[in-house]
Amino acid sequence: MSTTSRGPIPADRPASDTSALVPTATTATRPAEHVSAGEIAEFLHDLARFRSPAAGGQPGEHAALLARKTELLDRIADQHARASTGPHHPPTTPPTTSMAPEGHTP
After folding, report:
1. What are the per-10-residue average pLDDT scores of the chain (106 residues)?
2. Chain centre distance of CA 81
């Protein structure tokens, strides 16, 4: 896990500032960065503080949180795809299992 700072985190900004939660054209077109456990924890922390519009929350904050969730899950999927098909991790085949009862050989 990297200990380098990536700048301000959501906890550093006011709750009403949702601008950093919305992906921009730049973030959407550059290669996905590695998703850290800290980013996931940060998102879950923000999700726990979130109030849906039905419970009196702001629709803009809801949209920003959904956009951030989508971006994070896309990066995780991309990271998984690259890890499972990269030169050091060739595609694997699922293990085969026998349907024979225990102690019997097919």
Report:
1. 45 55 52 84 91 89 93 92 67 59 61
2. 13
Distance in angstroms (rounded) separating the CA atoms of residues 25 and 27: 6
The residue ranges of every structural domain in the chain are 34-93
Determine the pLDDT at residue 2. 42
CA 59 centroid distance within chain: 22
Residues 6+ apart with CB under 8 A from 66: none
Give the predicted TM-score (pTM) of the model.
Answer: 0.49
Going by C-beta distance under 8 Å and a sequence separation of 6 or more, which residues neighbour residue 100? 106
Alpha helix locations (H) across 8-106? 25-29, 37-49, 59-85
